[in-house]
């Protein structure tokens, strides 16, 4: 099921290739010269392990490639390898990611800079192969840096940035790159593949220094801490996550300088917001139907914008609140659920409301929308219905705080 | 605005690459001609199973594809059946707008195959091409049931996977391009590994034309 790749040489040393989001992540692993990779198949992440496997088989990539007996071992193996100084890559999807939960919990706690790819997939039951964000969001409180990308180029670039930030001595926290199942993992796009020289310039070698687990450097990893030390160690994780925003900004600035590709604000992308009355928000490939709908609505004179949250952890609350304060109302489209949460809203909606509540500036009303669960397509008319409701809220008319969109009656 | 959907029906594992080669080469040619195009597999078919029906999609447009995240081709203008017996059993004509093209890999004539096609009134043309014969594909041509066994070995797989359309996909691509003009012959031909089968198909394919339908 691997997709044929047509690579076209360009004049510069960079190349352009027609590849899927999963292939883009695999190419990033090759460029980052990852040392240890563990794999265990689950759709849609399995396409990444296939592409990496192919790169290894073709002699294009040199790494230790281990097929584990399950996701828990998969994540444990790279965790230990990473403690021993290896640059590692891992990934999973949906229930596979959840099966690794115990390993996912200890990875940030041990300050392991693992980079993982989550091919977002709905959690069972009932079984579904399509996208939902609840799998990656399950680790949102644990110290994982979480990012959602919406195209293959961004997937490749963000993977390189993830290694740079995670392995920074000031951080040493894992990072999970979320790619929407099917929509991003399985669809092709033209991707600029940077030269190895530029990547080497951007990405220093992984160096654990005095934290290296090695016979020449006898240290204890994962001891029992109890009430004696656990709280201080948690506080160190807190401080590392606090520094993550700064290190991310540095990394994006360097990325722009070396690769000549700027992402503007690293934390969220704004689309048609300059003159917008209202904005919609969301994460991942939701951006495609939303942008199409916005272009159509603007032809009808509706000034609608879009803010796509890229980094969910760390969450750029102050910057986001400052930006959202410019608009009359905000509609957040969640591709996830959080049953029993405040106002029964999705995860992103609750976070956006929290960010706005403590901000000094204006606080536009925030409506929550749950859409596209189980991989259901979010259509252009769906987005228009969302915008209509947000416009009503902007006019001061009462609207439900949480609405389900595209639901069969 | 010109917008075309191509859907290829094939059989999992044993003819998966053939189906993929058709949509990938047509999509890549369209991009080279300056159009917007995408090629993809039917998400829920993966991972495919031996002999199970699987679908591959291609979309070509003069403008940016705004439906690129839609899972399936809902209104295929062109349908290809990579294996002839697929003509029975499922509704590959579903959603086809009037004026469509159906291309079947078979040694039978279009006049004979027409009786199995559900909803033939939507067709502008029915094309039959004996792709397995033209590509000298002995397993597919004589002993379909053994094809699965043949592909259980990975012998030759690496060499084969590097080529685009080394066997039965080549005549089928020729039939798609000649009967529909979806891309230019000179754009796609350099990509095709089995040029002999491709060119033979151009003269040996059988086209049954129906009354043209105003679109």
Oligomer: heterodimer
**Order of strands across the biggest sheet of chain B?**
2-3-1-4-5-6-7
**Poorly predicted spans of chain B:** none
Which CATH first-tier class of the largest domain in chain A would you pick? Alpha Beta
Considering the chains and any ligands shown, give keywords for the structure.
heterodimer, A: 409 residues, alpha/beta, Rossmann fold, 2 domains, six-stranded mixed sheet, 13 helices, 39% helix, disordered N terminus, B: 215 residues, Pyruvate-ferredoxin Oxidoreductase, domain 3, globular
Walk me through what this model shows:
The complex is a heterodimer of chains A (409) and B (215). Chain A has 409 residues and is an alpha/beta fold. Chain A has two domains: 11-259, 3-Layer(aba) Sandwich (Rossmann fold), CATH 3.40.50; 268-404, Rossmann fold (3-Layer(aba) Sandwich). In chain A, 39% of the residues lie in helices and 19% in strands. Chain A is built from 13 helices and 16 strands. Chain A has helices at 21-31, 46-57, 71-83, 94-99, 101-109, 134-137, 152-166, 196-202, 226-259, 287-299, 317-324, 347-357, 380-394, and strands at 7-9, 15-20, 36-39, 64-67, 88-92, 115-120, 145-148, 175-180, 188-193, 268-271, 278-282, 304-309, 311-313, 329-334, 366-370, 402-404. In chain A, the strands form three sheets. Chain A has a seven-stranded mixed beta sheet, with helices on both faces. In chain A, helix 3 (71-83) runs parallel beside helix 5. The longest helix of chain A has 34 residues, at 226-259. The relative contact order of chain A is 0.11. Chain B is of the alpha/beta class. Chain B has a single domain (3-209), classed as Pyruvate-ferredoxin oxidoreductase, PFOR, domain III (Pyruvate-ferredoxin Oxidoreductase, domain 3), CATH 3.40.920.10. Helices cover 32% and strands 21% of the residues of chain B. Chain B has nine helices and seven strands. In chain B, helix 2 (110-113) links the parallel strand 5 (100-105) and strand 6. In chain B, helix 1 (16-32) packs across helix 7 (169-180) and helix 7 (169-180) packs across helix 9. Chain B starts with a strand and ends in a 6-residue tail after the last strand. Chains A and B meet through helix 10 of A and helix 1 and strand 2 of B.
